[in-house]
């Protein structure tokens, strides 16, 4: 896998760093117009993780690659990227425009936990298609961010944080069913949330020597200090699947990512994902995809 891109590396390689956008000790923030640096013939962006958050708004035909998924948007979309999941995008039309902002988690210190919003949670699809009547409103959010960041207003970063939060809530309202993920009002929700956090903490796999440590339902139950039957009931009630199904689904997602975006050997990928023998990984993969990992990679 390509090494995660830091925000400083992003500035050095592609973006102009505006005065006053680097906040010593309290994180970083910046906002840009895509047209200022895309150019007439942009080069493909590597599929990789970034060590920062990014909220993009693009109009035009675009294909987004996120985790093991590919989503094509015909008109306009808000896209929320976080440091946990690799991604990139491909321009499919010439008439593209829009904005994006980048920031570190530290930028929101004492302003709420940015990672707790459902759009940054594992398992969601953080691509929100925008209807034509909403485009102007979203453009205004970014234009106001640009206006504030170029101002000498003493509290401009507090105002910018508020604008980012408003943008997040605008997206959640576009897909209100997912806002239920933000509610953790009972024991089942709390257990499911802790399970998901433990599972996702093991990913992404970024080296052939990195290996999953929590692999079986019992591993997770012991780590959470609950009985395996209790864990199964909680996950079934809140997520609709058993512990084994959720673990297997996430392993398959990572397997597809590694097969697509690395040149590691099949045995190395199986080892990283907790399989003692390559044959066990091949059988596991074929049961879900109906093809071997090698054939999946060549396709």
Automatic annotation (TrEMBL):
Gene3D superfamilies under this entry? Homeodomain-like
Name of protein: Helix-turn-helix transcriptional regulator
Q: Which Pfam families match?
A: HTH_18
Q: Which InterPro entries match?
A: Homeodomain-like_sf, HTH-like, HTH_AraC
Write out the entry's keywords from A to Z. DNA-binding, Transcription, Transcription regulation
Could you tell me which residue ranges the HTH araC/xylS-type domain spans?
189-299
* Sequence intervals crossing the membrane: none
